[in-house]
Amino acid sequence: MRVEAAARAAGVALVWRPFLLGPLFAKQGWNDSPFNLYPVKGRYMWRDLERLCAAQGIPFRRPSVFPRSGLVAARVAARFAGEAWLPEFVRRVYQANFAEDREIAERSVVAELLESLGQPAAERLAAAETAEAKAALRAQTERAERLGIFGAPSFVVGDEIFWGNDRLEAALAWRAPARP
Amino acid sequence: MRVEAAARAAGVALVWRPFLLGPLFAKQGWNDSPFNLYPVKGRYMWRDLERLCAAQGIPFRRPSVFPRSGLVAARVAARFAGEAWLPEFVRRVYQANFAEDREIAERSVVAELLESLGQPAAERLAAAETAEAKAALRAQTERAERLGIFGAPSFVVGDEIFWGNDRLEAALAWRAPARP
User: Fold this and answer.
1) What DSSP character marks residue A167?
2) Alpha-carbon dihedral angle through residues B108, B113, B118, B120, given to the nearest 10 degrees
3) Which of A18, A32, B43, B166 is deepest in the core (most CB within 10 A)?
4) Which of B:48-77 have CB within 8 Å of A?
5) Could you say which residues from 115 to 134 on chain B have a Cβ atom under 8 Å away from some Cβ of chain A?
6) ipTM above 0.85, yes or no
C-alpha cells in the first residue's frame, strides 16, 4: 500500500517483480500459509496486521478464506509489471482480499478490478494467460528463489534482501558499505 | 539491549518475566531454532540481525554454535528477576553469546558473568537451582504459553502481545482503545 509513495519520497527507483509465493513456501517445506501451519504465531500475526493497519489508517478485515490463490492476479501483474496502472491494480487486489473479503482467486473478480481501472479486462486476462506470460511468471518465481527470497513483500537492493513492510525504510535507505 | 532505556524514556514500568523458549518452540512443532529448521529464511534472519546491530552500534558476531542452551542463565534470571543487577546480567549473557561467541550453556561462563557484576556466583547459582526456583521458571514458561507467546522478546501490555525488537516502540506506545 505504501511502497510507491515511500520510494518516490526517498528518490529511489522502484521496479516491480511479481512472483508466486506458493512455490517458494513449498521450498521451505510449507504446504500452506505459515499463519495456518503455526496457529499460535498465526493468531499473533493477524492481530499485528490489524494493529498496523489501524495505526496507518489502512482498511483491514481478516479474510474469511485464507490464503486465497493469487495466481490470476499474479499473472496479470507479471505480464503488465511495467505499466503505469499496475501498482494501483496490485493495491486493489490486496484491498479486495484483505479489506473487502472478496474472492480474488476468481477471474471475474480480477476482471472487475481491471475494469475499475479502465482496463479492458478480457483482453488483459487473455494476454496474461498465454503460455509465454505463464512462463515469464515461473521464471520470475525461480529468480526469486535463487535470490534467497522466502516471503513477500521482499525488497532487493543490490545484493541485499529486505523482507516485509517493517524493512521498507531500511531498504530505501540502504547504501552498500564501502569495501576495504 | 535497549528495552530498559526505551521504557525509561517512555515512562513505562518494566517487569522482567524470564521464560524458556525451547518448550514454547516445541509447542509449535519446532524441535530446533526456526533459523536452523528453515535455512533459507534463517540465512536472511542472520543477515538482518547483522544489519540491525551495525545500524545501532551493537557488537554482533554470529555464534559458531546455535542455539546454545540458555537454561542455566534463564534460571538465574527467573530467580533474580526483581534485582537491580539482573538486566545488566541478561545483556552480558546475550553479548557473550551473540558478540563474543562464548559457551553460555556452561555454568562456568554464567558464573564468570555473575562475578563480572560483583555477584557471588556460587551462591547465586545454587539459589537458582533449587527445586523451587526450577518450578518457578517452569510456571513462568507455562504462563507465557497460556498468553499465546511463541518467541522472544515478547512484550505484554494489558491484553496485547508485541513480539520482537521491531515492536518495542509499538508496545511502549500502546494504550488500549476506548471500548464502545
Assistant:
1) G
2) -30
3) A18
4) 48, 51, 55
5) none
6) yes
Written as one letter, the residue type at B7 is A
Tens-place pLDDT, residues A144-180: 999 999 999 999 999 999 999 999 999 999 986 666 6
Give B44's contacts in chain A (Cβ within 8 Å).
148, 150, 161, 163
Is residue B68, in this structure, part of any structural domain at all?
Answer: yes
In a domain, A100, yes or no: yes
Can you tell me the distance from the alpha carbon of B167 to that of B53, in angstroms, rounded to the nearest whole number? 16
Interface membership of B166 toward A (CB under 8 Å): yes
Residues 6+ apart with CB under 8 A from B145: B23, B24, B27
B30 closest CA partner among A21, A28, A151? A28
What SS3 class is residue A120?
coil
Q: For chain A, how many structural domains are there in total? A: 1
Partners of residue B173 on adjacent β-strands:
none
Domain CATH for A162? 3.40.30.10
- What amino acid occupies position B59? P
A58 inside domain: no
Cell (9 digits) for A128: 496474461
